[in-house]
């Protein structure tokens, strides 16, 4: 059956949202992910030595961020729903930028733990808030496309951020600081600046967007209202109901496995690359390590976009999340059994492509059956459970590495959690449900 024609108003409205809001929210996400993972660049480039950290301590420092994040995530997202995204997202960003700046002068293991925890508290609610915000601007049939454009910022954070962080580390002695301290300073300042800009740039809802025409505002407002009405009855889940909803919890555990893989890779890939010298006798400069760290993430950005486009043609199905999760489960432990740096990075690239292909399709799901405060609470809960993996992955990976002397066993465990995600998507499919609460109508190009 041919797709209904897309009206000129629909096409122009979605196009404006895609290019006016999504790149800016993506920039905020870029800075967000860079600030939370900056410790991964600092670790093997002087911080571990200067602060006397072993692998388990480094992993705990990386992971404790998520304990602070988890504590305030649901309340933060409910506050965003109450006070509006413009003010709340801007407030979050300026706050985390100030905390990130303090890493420049950290002088002890305990101080590092405290600042990482505080950074998590400061960032709490940003990611689910951004997902919720974008979901409130486009109808479901276009949401997959918008979220893919937003999510591409995450792999690009490493593509651009790894060489950028390496360049800052190379400025050793600037302002009388060690290179890794200069790096922390350099990645924190943009958060404060962009956070202030966000206060004036963002708009809370389509009805207030002066950059839309009257016809575009009317169409978006009408379409979004129809969707909210269609979610009535059992799908109009209140905040308390969302926290007890079985589907929300199932999606939470799917997300747990994906995030376990994402952060094991994000926090330890620079350390694994630094270990190539001892493992293979290969020597790389700080800048070369930065570029090698970036290699897996550029193909991942392309894979994310292409896989999301494929999902948009049919609506998100279980295999759009489950198949990438399965590929990641197999590839990530295999990578560390390769016999050269090139082969190792090539297989890690497959893992990165798999993880990032699954994530935006996953996040097209919850807003299809959650609305209002229920959407705020449900999306925050899913992200909270996922961020338990954000704490567990670096800490357990570091602990297992210390216990075994290598990363192989730790990566087998990562593969196991990603396999859990793949299996849970099959459980949903066997129940006769698509992950999208019955597959959405095919998304149409704007």
Automatic annotation (TrEMBL):
<feature type="transmembrane region" description="Helical">
    <location>
        <begin position="344"/>
        <end position="363"/>
    </location>
</feature>
<keyword id="KW-0813">Transport</keyword>
<keyword id="KW-0472">Membrane</keyword>
<feature type="domain" description="Major facilitator superfamily (MFS) profile">
    <location>
        <begin position="21"/>
        <end position="433"/>
    </location>
</feature>
<feature type="transmembrane region" description="Helical">
    <location>
        <begin position="290"/>
        <end position="307"/>
    </location>
</feature>
<feature type="transmembrane region" description="Helical">
    <location>
        <begin position="113"/>
        <end position="134"/>
    </location>
</feature>
<keyword id="KW-1133">Transmembrane helix</keyword>
<dbReference type="InterPro" id="IPR020846">
    <property type="entry name" value="MFS_dom"/>
</dbReference>
<dbReference type="InterPro" id="IPR036259">
    <property type="entry name" value="MFS_trans_sf"/>
</dbReference>
<feature type="transmembrane region" description="Helical">
    <location>
        <begin position="409"/>
        <end position="429"/>
    </location>
</feature>
<feature type="transmembrane region" description="Helical">
    <location>
        <begin position="146"/>
        <end position="170"/>
    </location>
</feature>
<feature type="transmembrane region" description="Helical">
    <location>
        <begin position="375"/>
        <end position="397"/>
    </location>
</feature>
<feature type="transmembrane region" description="Helical">
    <location>
        <begin position="17"/>
        <end position="34"/>
    </location>
</feature>
<dbReference type="Pfam" id="PF07690">
    <property type="entry name" value="MFS_1"/>
</dbReference>
<feature type="transmembrane region" description="Helical">
    <location>
        <begin position="88"/>
        <end position="107"/>
    </location>
</feature>
<dbReference type="InterPro" id="IPR011701">
    <property type="entry name" value="MFS"/>
</dbReference>
<protein>
    <submittedName>
        <fullName>MFS transporter</fullName>
    </submittedName>
</protein>
<feature type="transmembrane region" description="Helical">
    <location>
        <begin position="182"/>
        <end position="202"/>
    </location>
</feature>
<feature type="transmembrane region" description="Helical">
    <location>
        <begin position="54"/>
        <end position="72"/>
    </location>
</feature>
<feature type="transmembrane region" description="Helical">
    <location>
        <begin position="319"/>
        <end position="338"/>
    </location>
</feature>
<keyword id="KW-0812">Transmembrane</keyword>
<feature type="transmembrane region" description="Helical">
    <location>
        <begin position="248"/>
        <end position="270"/>
    </location>
</feature>
């Amino acid at each position: 059956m041919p797709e209904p024609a897309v009206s000129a108003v629909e096409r122009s409205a979605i196009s404006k949202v895609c290019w006016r809001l999504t790149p800016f929210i993506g920039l905020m996400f870029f800075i967000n992910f860079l600030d939370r993972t900056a410790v991964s660049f600092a670790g093997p480039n002087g911080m571990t030595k200067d602060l006397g950290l072993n692998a388990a301590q480094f992993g705990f420092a990386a992971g404790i961020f998520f304990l602070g994040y988890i504590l305030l995530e649901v309340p933060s997202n409910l506050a965003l729903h109450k006070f509006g995204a413009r003010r709340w997202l801007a407030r979050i960003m300026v706050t985390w930028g100030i905390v990130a700046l303090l890493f420049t002068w950290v002088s002890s293991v305990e101080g590092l733990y405290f600042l990482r925890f505080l950074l998590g508290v400061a960032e709490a609610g940003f990611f689910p808030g951004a997902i919720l915000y974008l979901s409130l601007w486009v109808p479901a049939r276009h949401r997959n496309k918008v979220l893919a454009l937003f999510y591409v910022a995450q792999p690009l954070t490493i593509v651009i951020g790894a060489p950028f962080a390496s360049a800052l580390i190379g400025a050793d002695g600037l302002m009388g600081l060690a290179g890794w301290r200069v790096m922390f300073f350099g990645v924190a300042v943009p958060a404060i600046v962009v956070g202030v800009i966000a206060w004036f740039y963002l708009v809370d809802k389509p009805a207030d967007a002066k950059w839309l025409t009257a016809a575009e505002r009317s169409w978006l407002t009408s379409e979004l209202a129809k969707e909210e009405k269609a979610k009535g009855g059992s799908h109009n889940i209140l905040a308390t109901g969302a926290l007890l909803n079985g589907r929300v919890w199932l999606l939470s555990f799917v997300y747990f496995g994906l995030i376990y893989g994402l952060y094991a890779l994000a926090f330890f890939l620079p350390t694994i690359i630094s270990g190539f010298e001892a493992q293979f006798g290969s020597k790389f400069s700080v800048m070369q390590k930065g570029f090698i760290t970036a290699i897996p993430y550029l193909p991942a950005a392309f894979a994310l976009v292409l896989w999301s486009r494929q999902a948009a043609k049919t609506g998100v199905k279980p295999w759009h999340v489950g198949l990438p999760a399965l590929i990641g489960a197999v590839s990530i432990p295999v990578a560390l059994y390769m016999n050269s740096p090139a082969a190792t990075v090539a297989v890690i690239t497959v893992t990165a492509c798999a993880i990032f292909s699954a994530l935006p399709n996953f996040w097209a799901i919850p807003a299809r059956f959650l609305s209002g405060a229920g959407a705020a609470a449900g999306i925050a809960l899913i992200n909270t459970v996922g961020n338990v993996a954000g704490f567990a992955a670096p800490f357990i990976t570091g602990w297992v590495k210390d216990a075994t002397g290598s990363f192989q066993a730790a990566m087998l465990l990562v593969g196991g959690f990603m396999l859990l995600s793949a299996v849970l998507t099959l459980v949903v499919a066997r129940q006769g449900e698509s992950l999208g609460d019955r597959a959405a109508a095919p998304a149409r190009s704007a």
